[in-house]
Backbone:
């Protein structure tokens, strides 16, 4: 139980520092360290990430930095797509899912490392983004291109949520940075709100399939929630480039371990 809680704490710290990435790491850690099958690890990881994200989103709402209308649109699209991912997850063999997860981790690690090398404060020009705000703290200006971009982001997030048990933050954060001119704190807080919403659908579908182990989920989720609370106190003090590079290294190492495990399983 202690090992499970510590793994959950690692996921909570990742969520606190990045607003993303917790779900995409939770499943490989549960598979590699606790030797759980993907079908069992995915809903447990999603439950833990969802609870921690809900707490982070509540803090963001109190601070007034969550764009709740955008979060609701993305989250609604994700909720609709998540059951489709769960349906696919129960019909695909475990080995292809593990290989796909390893490839995804490797790509995320490479992208995070590339992002860490960009100059601080680099942002898209206003005319390039469909979703804009008049001034910091003001609501988004809603247009048809903005709604389409956010809905498409939610569909991608929800499908991955159900398929491999990730909250979708690694999709949501870059999408909000690409499609909006929100500042990083608002992007991260809005991402956590979406992750919480999408996780509800994915976990609910998994419970319907009888795939959630409470003995595994409770200590894992507890560690994640407590670590997120602690990590929020330090998130604003660390250079963003350091956090991105640490996340990149963790992703690549986990991907290598996943590939090694998949190769071992294939050889048997």
Residues:
């Amino acid at each position: 139980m202690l090992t499970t809680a510590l793994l959950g704490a690692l996921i909570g710290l990742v969520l606190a520092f990045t607003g993303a990435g917790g779900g995409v790491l939770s499943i490989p850690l549960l598979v590699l360290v606790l030797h759980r099958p993907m079908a069992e690890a995915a809903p447990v990881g999603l439950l833990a990430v969802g609870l921690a994200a809900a707490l982070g989103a509540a803090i963001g709402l109190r601070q007034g930095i969550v764009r709740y209308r955008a979060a609701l649109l993305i989250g609604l699209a994700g909720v609709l797509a998540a059951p489709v991912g769960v349906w696919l997850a129960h019909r695909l063999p475990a080995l292809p899912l593990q290989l796909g997860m390893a490839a995804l981790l490797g790509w995320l690690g490479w992208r995070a490392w590339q992002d860490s090398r960009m100059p601080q404060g680099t942002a898209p020009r206003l005319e390039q983004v469909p979703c804009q705000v008049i001034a910091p703290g003001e609501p988004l200006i809603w247009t048809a291109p903005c709604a389409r971009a956010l809905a498409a982001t939610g569909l991608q997030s929800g499908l991955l949520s159900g398929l491999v048990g990730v909250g979708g933050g690694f999709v949501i954060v870059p999408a909000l940075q690409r499609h909006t001119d929100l500042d990083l704190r608002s992007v991260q807080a809005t991402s956590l709100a979406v992750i919480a919403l999408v996780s509800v659908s994915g976990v609910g579908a998994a419970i319907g399939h009888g795939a959630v182990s409470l003995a595994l989920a409770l200590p894992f989720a507890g560690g994640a929630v407590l670590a997120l609370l602690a990590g929020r106190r330090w998130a604003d003090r660390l250079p963003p480039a350091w956090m991105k590079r640490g996340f990149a290294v963790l992703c690549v190492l986990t991907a290598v371990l996943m590939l090694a495990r998949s190769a071992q399983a294939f050889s048997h």
Residues 240-267 form the longest helix (28 residues). The chain has a mean pLDDT of 79. Strands lie at 132-133, 140-141.
